[in-house]
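Ticket reopened. Same input as before:
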Amino acid sequence: DADVTQTPRNRITKTGKRIMLECSQTKGHDRMYWYRQDPGLGLRLIYYSFDVKDINKGEISDGYSVSRQAQAKFSLSLESAIPNQTALYFCATSDRRRADTQYFGPGTRLTVL
Amino acid sequence: GENVEQHPSTLSVQEGDSAVIKCTYSDSASNYFPWYKQELGKGPQLIIDIRSNVGEKKDQRIAVTLNKTAKHFSLHITETQPEDSAVYFCAASMSQNYGGSQGNLIFGKGTKLSVKP
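Engineering reply: fixed in the latest deploy. New output:
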């Protein structure tokens, strides 16, 4: 969905480096999410935010942190990247009036060597 | 917590045939069941959803059925076309419009559908 953008689209980094993935949305939604996708494992929730002052851990938050800089921006950080964090990362948004209908960005492919 | 199982993991059909993907869920409190389609290099896109107060929903060649008693729901694609080739994900949530963690989706592991011309 072009209303949800992610940068970078691809990133290769080395073990131990700090990495930030960014997500921006123009949909005016208050809720934002970060997911990780691994082959054969589907989509797993890392963190979610209901508004700028609300951050919640998801299923697999260890090794990750997030920042909600504004309603439209939600960043995911890997403080010290490790190879098993190699995956596709997706940002998603939803409106609190229909919170379960989520709109996904195009994804960031992260490779940790 | 909720667990969603999805089968099959891969499905190959001839163009024009029907395709069926099945999911089961564990939490009887779940009441919202969306299906997402992910094309190569793109993020998942919602294609159809169903809430627990109905048993079936159709949108052109796509339909979803829900059996609350058995806790399973299925995606049916009729008259498949090559552009239907993609990975399909089912999901479940305990939908609630205001507050709390409700609305978070639990996804199945995906089905890779290939439609052969």
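Chain B has no helices and eleven strands. Chain B has a mean pLDDT of 91. Please confirm and we'll close it.
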